[in-house]
Design goal:
Length: 186
């Protein structure tokens, strides 16, 4: 790349070296005048090129500044969108957390309700078993006791037609005669 730079200014370098050589050689005024005219012409070309390059540089700088401004605007927009996305994400996370807590609470309530229902059904089953044991245990022969004797000695009634179907052997109660009523013989 340094070779390209040397070639880019080769003509200007040669003009400068030639002008220095003329001044150092003790040239005649006509030679100095001719070299000065050449040097002035070369300087004018160099100045035109410098103006042209400055103009191009100014245009490039303006484009670069415009691009930088656009990039800054894009960065601001991205920062704003990122902040909005962050806020939205936080809202979604809070909502999801709330829904999860509600679901957990709902499942807990559901589990408590299921457990309560299971206990109630179990208790109902036990009550039904006790009911059958109490009322039908004597008839089925799985229970005995004074209550059973009372049920077995009870007369069938219309309220209890099932008792009418199976007559039980009933013993007649023994007639009790009070001892006080018996006349005493003297």
């Amino acid at each position: 790349m340094s070779n390209n730079k040397a070639e880019a200014f080769q003509l200007e370098t040669e003009v400068l070296e030639k002008a220095k050589a003329v001044l150092a050689s003790g040239a005649t005024p006509e030679q100095i005048k001719a070299e000065f005219a050449n040097l002035t012409e070369q300087y004018e070309k160099l100045l035109d090129e410098a103006k042209f390059l400055t103009k191009i540089s100014d245009k490039l700088e303006a484009k670069l500044n415009a691009s930088n401004e656009k990039l800054q605007e894009y960065n601001k927009e991205l920062a704003h969108e990122a902040e909005s996305a962050k806020v939205q994400t936080e809202k979604v996370l809070k909502k999801n957390k709330k829904l999860f807590e509600e679901k957990t609470e709902s499942e807990s309530s559901k589990n408590k309700l299921q457990m309560t229902m299971t206990i109630l059904i179990g208790m109902l089953f036990i009550v039904i078993l006790l009911f059958f044991y109490q009322f039908y245990g004597c008839k089925l022969g799985i229970r005995s006791g004074p209550e059973c004797e009372e049920i077995q000695t009870r007369k069938p009634t219309e309220e209890h037609p099932e008792e009418n179907a199976a007559p039980a052997t009933q013993e007649a109660p023994a007639a009790e005669t009070p001892a006080e009523e018996t006349p005493a013989t003297e």
